[in-house]
Design a protein that fits this description.
Order of helices and strands: HHHEEEEEEEHEEEEEEEEEEEE
Number of domains: 1
Structural class: mainly beta
Mean pLDDT: 79
Helix content: under 10%
CATH class: Mainly Beta
CATH topology: Porin
CATH architecture: Beta Barrel
CATH superfamily: Porin
Oligomer: single chain
Number of helices: 4
Shape: globular
Strand order of the largest sheet: 3-4-5-6-7-8-9-10-11-12-13-14-15-17-18-19
């Protein structure tokens, strides 16, 4: 057994040890609500939409809300939970454990090759309570992610075909004040920036380009979050290192978002991000200021986000607009997007992809989720073609 294999097994062992320790502890002590969450692998500095395997199955938890919150507790990808703004609440028995097995295949017309991603992991959520009510929520997610023939793998993989133990959301959200007005989140969380804060895309083909835009999607750190005077807020500081805490180059990330209540039919929010992010042997700098908004009408939602900033010393901008639909039972979901990610250099001017995306997802009542997405480049590449990629995903929880 190599040293790397030994430490991977050790990491898996301690993850499960922590999970069952929490179960045993709470059986003897009826305490409060905690939120530990494991966010999945993000990409390095590369467009998510180019390879469609960049978001290697992040959380998969429904940390946004559908039109009918009661459906969120039962339907969303079979996990049975939802999050308002600050606190994720578990089912009535206050805890839930599920295994998660996911497979994804993507075909790129430019490369004329298929890429594959597999995930074998677990989800655990527990609401901690005492005689005064909830005081925290705990979420644990982890598993083995395997990539096959990925031409641009995240930097924590050793090559185009590799397997790694990865954490998704892994945090505890402690309730510091009544009515979720102030909470403290500690662990590995998703960057609270733009549409991602109100419409979670973790573990799905549907993406808003967060990792592409910010250079990171999930990280280790802490946030203050809550709802106050009708405004949802989250302010965070994190390590800037993605999966691993141990890095070099003193990376960091500051992120914040403030927005109106996203459950009342319309919302608007503003976000900010400043970071020096770890990459093997170096760091990259990113900063952004953004705005997002959305409005619901009947079964449809129209939403969008736009941000500007800098990648190192180069100007950058990101934009996305989406129209989506869901049926009354909320087991069918379809969407269309137009999205762009541009960077300006002195030599080449504004460069970057402009794309359209069409996607569909079906969630069965037997814990199966089937989805597909077609992405079309709207501008010609250097080869003179308009590349197309198509992805399929199958997910089963039990």
């Amino acid at each position: 057994m190599t040293g790397k294999e030994f430490f991977t097994l050790l990491e898996i062992y301690f993850s499960y040890l922590l999970l069952f320790t929490v179960q045993a502890f709470d059986a003897e002590n009826s305490l409060t609500n905690v939120t530990l969450a494991v966010v999945a692998p993000d990409n390095k500095n590369k467009p998510e939409s180019t390879e469609l395997l960049n978001d290697s199955f992040t959380s998969g938890l429904n940390v946004g809300m559908t039109k009918n919150p009661s459906n969120d507790l039962q339907l969303y990808e079979g996990i049975g939970m939802y999050e308002g703004i600050g606190m994720i609440r578990a089912p009535e028995n206050n805890s839930q454990f599920q295994f998660d097995v996911t497979g994804r295949a993507a075909y790129d017309s430019n490369r004329e090759e298929w890429s594959f991603t597999q995930y074998y992991g677990f989800d655990f959520i527990k609401t901690l309570t005492n005689n005064t009510g909830d005081y925290a929520t705990l979420i644990l997610q982890g598993g083995v992610t395997r990539i096959i023939n990925n031409p641009s793998p995240p930097f924590f993989f050793d090559g185009p075909t590799d397997s790694q133990w990865t954490y998704r959301m892994f945090y505890i959200n402690l309730k510091l004040a009544k009515q979720d007005s102030l909470n403290l989140k500690i662990g590995r969380f998703e960057m609270p920036f733009g549409l991602e804060m109100t419409n979670n895309t973790n573990g799905t083909l549907r993406q808003f380009g967060t990792a592409q835009n910010l250079g990171i999607k999930g990280d280790w750190g802490l946030t203050l979050n809550g709802v106050s005077r009708g405004l949802e807020y989250e302010f965070g500081i994190s390590r800037g290192s993605n999966q691993s805490w141990k890095t070099s180059g003193s990376p960091y990330a500051f992120v914040a978002r403030v927005g109106t209540d996203s459950t009342v039919g319309s919302w608007v929010g503003v976000s900010a991000f400043d970071a020096k992010l770890y990459r093997p042997g170096t760091t990259i700098e990113r900063n952004r200021i953004g705005v997002d908004a959305g409005i619901e009408f009947d079964a449809y939602t129209l939403m969008g986000e736009f941000s500007i900033g800098e990648n190192e010393s180069n100007d950058a901008m990101h934009g996305l607009i989406e129209l989506n639909w869901r049926n009354p039972a909320e087991n069918w979901f379809a969407y269309g997007q137009v999205r762009m990610q541009k960077q300006q250099t002195s030599a080449n001017g504004w460069q970057g992809p402009l794309q359209s995306a069409l996607g569909i997802k079906y969630s069965s009542y037997q814990n199966w989720v089937l989805s597909a997405e077609l992405v079309q480049n709207l501008e010609k590449t250097s080869s003179g073609s308009r590349d197309t990629s198509i992805s399929f995903q199958v997910r089963y929880r039990f």
